From TrEMBL:
Functional note: Participates in chromosomal partition during cell division. May act via the formation of a condensin-like complex containing Smc and ScpA that pull DNA away from mid-cell into both cell halves.
UniProt-listed InterPro entries: ScpB_csome_segregation, WH-like_DNA-bd_sf, WH_DNA-bd_sf
Locations listed in the record: Cytoplasm
NCBIfam families the UniProt entry points to: SMC-Scp complex subunit ScpB
Keywords linked to the UniProt accession: Cell cycle, Cell division, Chromosome partition, Cytoplasm
Organism in which the protein naturally occurs: Maccoyibacter intestinihominis
Family statement drawn from the similarity comment of this UniProt entry: Belongs to the ScpB family.
Subunit structure: Homodimer. Homodimerization may be required to stabilize the binding of ScpA to the Smc head domains. Component of a cohesin-like complex composed of ScpA, ScpB and the Smc homodimer, in which ScpA and ScpB bind to the head domain of Smc. The presence of the three proteins is required for the association of the complex with DNA.
Protein's recorded name: Segregation and condensation protein B
Length: 186
């Protein structure tokens, strides 16, 4: 059996990521063997300078177009999905990424302002999704990042996000408080 061909056809057809365990189950191999095959396929695509690659996204794999091909895709697709991430959206997204799962109230406590619009926009952009409800009074929604977030920011898992030291966090807090004070003074 040509395992690479089977994996390639599954990833191409599914479009979305497929968990390593599911691929192993279909191929009737253990996860380590499938991971080795996937890594070899990634090396082959790179060595052959192909337009596609296989990307790992939090323990799942997806066939993707290489970022270098983006300009050519624009010419065909005319208007690819484009969204603007304002400072407010990036700040809200950062809080969700580092604190997930997190409720809207917790985000607002950190930011000091309402975040309903920002969270809704991030959900629309498929960078954030509802993960369920907190087992607390009112059963508030919990939010977390999506695979699209990982793809957009070029990381394969949340663990790859940069670690912020305490000094950076204090600086961010101070800047946010100063910004809020300036807005209130206006």
């Amino acid at each position: 059996m040509n395992y690479e061909a089977v994996i390639e056809s599954i990833l191409f057809t599914m479009g979305d990521s497929v968990e390593l365990s599911k691929l192993a189950e279909v191929l009737e191999l253990d996860k380590k063997e499938v991971k080795d095959i996937l890594e070899q396929m990634q090396k082959n695509y790179e060595a052959e300078d192909r337009g596609i690659t296989i990307t790992e996204l939090d323990g799942a794999y997806q066939m993707c177009t290489k970022p270098q091909m983006y300009d050519y895709l624009i010419k065909v697709a005319k208007q690819p999905k484009h969204y603007a991430l304002t400072d407010v959206l990036l700040e809200t997204l950062s809080i969700i990424a580092y604190k997930q799962p997190i409720t809207r109230a917790e985000i607002e406590k950190i930011r000091g302002v309402s975040c309903s619009h920002a969270v809704s926009r991030l959900v629309d952009y498929n960078l954030v999704c509802e993960l369920g409800r907190l087992d607390a009074p009112g059963r508030p929604l919990l939010f977390g990042t999506t695979e699209e977030f990982l793809r957009t920011f070029g990381v394969s898992s949340i663990e790859e996000l940069p670690i912020l030291n305490q000094d950076q966090l204090e600086n961010f807090k101070r800047e946010a408080e100063e910004e809020m004070q300036m807005k209130m003074d206006i």
